[in-house]
């Protein structure tokens, strides 16, 4: 059942984001607007578009959220595998389960290390330029 729903949610999410779906929706709204004078802009005429869009929006929220959750989980798993098999710090594995405060501490650590690497790189560039200047 889970696999069937996952396939359905993926297919629906892909279809919902396609240009043809957008065109169909625009045409439906234009048709609805054209029918306004025919139905004398009645409450029923208004109710049709309101009810239709509400139902579609309500259902799409859950389908798209399911797809995003699955994509996020797959991406996180891939990142964890890259971390596990590379020389990266193992402390980054599973960080999606940390609290916001723990993530902020880790983020600040990464910022400090990035700044340190940047300073080191700048020193290397300056040293290289100095050597080039001396050799001229």
Automatic annotation (TrEMBL):
Pfam families documented for this protein: Iron_permease
Q: Which UniProt keywords apply?
A: Membrane, Transmembrane, Transmembrane helix
Family matches, as InterPro entries = Iron_permease_Fet4
Keyword Coiled coil among UniProt keywords: no
**A biological process term (GO) from this entry:** transmembrane transport
Positions of transmembrane segments: 20-39, 45-64
Protein's recorded name: Membrane protein
Q: Where is this region: Disordered?
A: 114-136
Whether Ribosomal protein counts among this entry's keywords is no
Top-rank lineage group of the source organism: Bacteria
